[in-house]
Amino acid sequence: MSDLPQTVDIHEEGPREGFQIEPGPIPSADKIALIEALAGTGLRHIQVASFVSPRLVPGWADAEAVVGGFRPREGVRYTALWFNESGLNRAMAFRDRLHLTGSIALSASDAFSVKNLNRGHAENLEAMRRQTALHLKAGLPVTRIGVMAAFGCNYQGDITPAQVVRTVADGLAIAAEQGVTITDVSLADTMGWATPARIERGVGAVRERWPDLRIGLHLHDTRGLAVANAHAGLRLGVRRFDSTVGGLGGCPFAGQKGAAGNICTEELVLLCEEMGVGTGVDLDALIEVGRMAERIVGHQLPSELLRAGSLDAFRKRAA
Amino acid sequence: MSDLPQTVDIHEEGPREGFQIEPGPIPSADKIALIEALAGTGLRHIQVASFVSPRLVPGWADAEAVVGGFRPREGVRYTALWFNESGLNRAMAFRDRLHLTGSIALSASDAFSVKNLNRGHAENLEAMRRQTALHLKAGLPVTRIGVMAAFGCNYQGDITPAQVVRTVADGLAIAAEQGVTITDVSLADTMGWATPARIERGVGAVRERWPDLRIGLHLHDTRGLAVANAHAGLRLGVRRFDSTVGGLGGCPFAGQKGAAGNICTEELVLLCEEMGVGTGVDLDALIEVGRMAERIVGHQLPSELLRAGSLDAFRKRAA
């Protein structure tokens, strides 16, 4: 069975990804309830909020209320997202309860960088230089490079493994300039272009060049292939995955309104656990939280498992 | 890249699976329009109707009108389903336009056989003996064994590869008694219990015992893992898959109301074509037919690809 890992780390991003895109408004108390329920399922990494412009992302105008409001659970790391100094400062106010780390965020697609961040790759590198300095000044460790559009791009088309390697190298150069050591690279299938073959080639190329870097996958289910891609990653020994409960999220990009969001956490957990890869997550409890997420957003989420139920539930009935 | 086949045969079952479960009523003309549109996408095998009791399956009360009504396309094989002599006779009336073959349908789960067919495995073997004789008398070739619940069962729990092998052996014994040669075995994940690991073990066990049998997979997306399971099958060199456009179908079994249906044809085509496995299908045309299916049934279907669009569509825009 190839290189299936014994365990994986799942980074639950449902609250952050989900509430930034739902039309809302969703009460802060509901967001807090979801975060606390997720922490009760065995998940150890939960991204709880985005400190972004309330004008651009009204769904996270209440980031302070949510992050200040939930009851942290022992053993769970709560993370948050920000894109600039103002966001960082807002996050820093909660450094007692958030696990804050800096990250060098790049895009393997220049066209996506322009569309999404309004700056090309070169300009973005400059911005990441400044941001890394900012993170270090704030006392945050910078150990991770994130590569968006690592498997293809709606604006640029196919992305080659060589482009991904170049992007990681650019991030490592920034890290080297500033004297920090990168341990983790996250490859994001931002617009749903990955296939198992592309996962194999992309992960393979990065690993061949930098065998000591830990590779994580951030998968979207835009075209329904996310679980096949996760399985391809597992086979390569990838041990870190981002996901969202119920498949919260959806795709905000042009031409894809209504497209699916991230890979569903519960389907990822089912895939792993049924193949002997430990997640530490109680799947039946997580399915209940997925149903709670559907009640909160007021509509059905993409997860099929929420309707079908876990296999263990049927095993118990059959026994 | 393991044993990926160069091409696969896709058996489109959307009309038959979909219209048997939709609350309807759906006009015969719409069913015919869907069948004709599917035949225009490059699909070469389309299951167009189920000759079953109109009392039990009102959605197929118009099987004759549909099967007699569509315009057959050169090079496309149209198939149908039946379960007894009465159904066979109804199908035989259309033998000029249908590709009729007999099949020995068994269940690897005794409990499912009882629930679904109201007879245990032994009784079902007896029924299949009679049905095989009936098919041969009618002049139909009998070359295929179908194994339902091959990867697990809501009523019985886990199903082992040894149980699948025993079931295939039972089918082969019937074939031997009646002097027919089986060339194909279809393993069905009837209730969505398969994982890539179980696909590998189940397909592996059957292939090890009977290396010359062609193995096909009939996958359901009940718990969201269908594309990962299809990919596991492709890696093993499986070349025949059943699927439904848009994911038409849904699961009629107890405790799973609202659960997803078969693997979506267009997601299977995307998976194959993007990895260099030929399907003969025009994916953009098929996506349009999926959207037509949504209009016909009057609700959204599970396929994510219908909302996101193919990669080629974005490649053309990006170029």
Distance between the termini of chain A: 28 Å
Largest sheet of chain A: 8 strands, parallel
**Which CATH class of the largest domain in chain A?**
Alpha Beta
Radius of gyration of chain A: 19 Å
Q: How many domains is the backbone of chain A divided into? A: 2
Can you characterise this structure?
Two copies of one chain form a homodimer. Chain A has 319 residues and is of the alpha/beta class. Chain A folds into two domains: 1-100 and 244-319, TIM Barrel; 102-214, TIM Barrel. Helix content of chain A is 43%, strand content 14%. In chain A, strands 3-2-1-8-7-6-5-4 form an eight-stranded parallel β-sheet. In chain A, helix 9 (226-235) links the parallel strand 7 and strand 8. The longest helix of chain A is centred in the middle third of the chain and has 17 residues, at 121-137. The first copy, chain A, starts with 8 loop residues before the first strand and ends with a helix. Chains A and B meet through helix 8, helix 9, helix 10, helix 12 and helix 13 of A and helix 8, helix 9, helix 10, helix 12 and helix 13 of B.
Kindly list the characteristics that best describe this protein.
homodimer, 319 residues, alpha/beta, TIM Barrel, 2 domains, 8-stranded parallel β-sheet, 43% helix
Question: Layout of SSEs?
Answer:
The structure is a homodimer of 319-residue chains.
Chain A: E1 9-12, H1 14-21, H2 28-39, E2 45-51, H3 63-69, E3 77-82, H4 85-92, E4 102-107, H5 110-117, H6 121-137, E5 142-148, H7 161-177, E6 184-189, H8 196-209, E7 214-219, H9 226-235, E8 240-243, H10 265-274, H11 283-297, H12 305-308, H13 311-318
Helix pairs in contact in A: 2-3, 2-11, 6-7, 7-8, 8-9, 9-10, 10-11
